[in-house]
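Supplementary Text 2. Reproducibility record for the structural model of the 427-residue chain.

All settings were left at their defaults, and a single model was retained for analysis rather than an ensemble. We include the record here because the model underlies the residue-level annotations in Supplementary Table 4.
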Amino acid sequence: MLRNLKNTWVWLKNRPEGPTLVFFLGLVLYRGRTFLIHPRFFAEEGSVYFANAWNLGFWASLFHVDSFGYLNLYAKLGAGIAAWAPSLENAPFYTSLMGMLAMVLPLFILFLRKGRLWDTWWKKVFLATLIVTADTNAEAWFNLVGAQYFLALAFFMLLISPTANSSVGRNFSRAVIVVSALSGMIPTFFAIPFVWAMRRTEDAERRIQLILLSIATSVQWILFIPKLSENLAKTSAVDCLAYSAWFWLHEVISKLLPPSWAEALGLRFLGLFQSDPILGATLSLGCLSMLGGALVVFANEKTNRTLACGFISVSVLTYSLLISPKIAHLSPSLGTRFGICGAFLFWLLALNSISRIWPDISFGRKVLVTVFGVLFFGTATIQFQKYDPEFFTGQDWIRQVDRNRNRNPSVYKIWPKKWKMELKRSR
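Retained model, structure tokens:
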């Protein structure tokens, strides 16, 4: 094992991007160290996924559709592996590990896979910083609840990069695309504009990916339609549009302003949207459309048009369809995991647009872009150290296991506070 690790390190060190990749992996491990040293179950990770894997068994729980209305294959696989752990005390370590693997997957694709949108070292650093600071309060870090959002980032990157030449690379891409699409609804929102844009592609491997993506998307939508009808019946369309557009805008603003400033601005506009939803929807959707349209005008080519349609559909549909019943109860400082994917697509679009027109823009505009870059990296540094205490507090898991060792069924208190998990059988 030590020899394999040494060979891997030598391989990374000899690649130009290797040391940078190791640096960002180190940042991820540093920020998420608590979840590996003191692993715990987090919210639905324990109360839904692990509880089902433990109570129903691995295979029965794998394709069980939960109350969310869609399939989350990766979370179910992770929970099933944890349920097979040698001891219940160690089970949260495996779910945390699976969450970490989903988090670092986009980083590996970014640094080890060629892509026109990240063809320089600075672009890679920019996108890596965006990935590491994507969830500003660490709500989605190292858990199966948030894994689907980082899988979606890997999904986006594989679809907009050239197809692999090797059979290993092609099979890897197919697996990530299928698992991501079967682990959440967000990839299916992006699939709509992407399949349309690639419908006439002559790349044989891309056509295979489109077929797999279409099948996975169809499965998810067939399962989700009943839940969709229920969600839309509980919230007005205007409220959905107002909140979804605003939360997307907040995710973009939060990458350029300190967290306290972004939250204050968010609360101010949120009050406007609550008092006049129609005005709020018009303003926020107008800003969203103007930003996206301007970037497409700057670089009017196929990739940009696909990204623009993708981030608009992902941003609006994520809030409108997935969480519409509780959208009015979210504040700009919480629920940031729902905005990760839309904001990432926006910054991909912005990066592609700026890089294509950079040689032709004036010195003054280059200075302006540089100022935005400084704001971005400065804010990222602040956000990297930001944790929301709600997501880092809860009962000690080992003590919970000791207390419930001879009880059946057993009720466990998990993170964050007030969350519980019931295990109905003992080993």
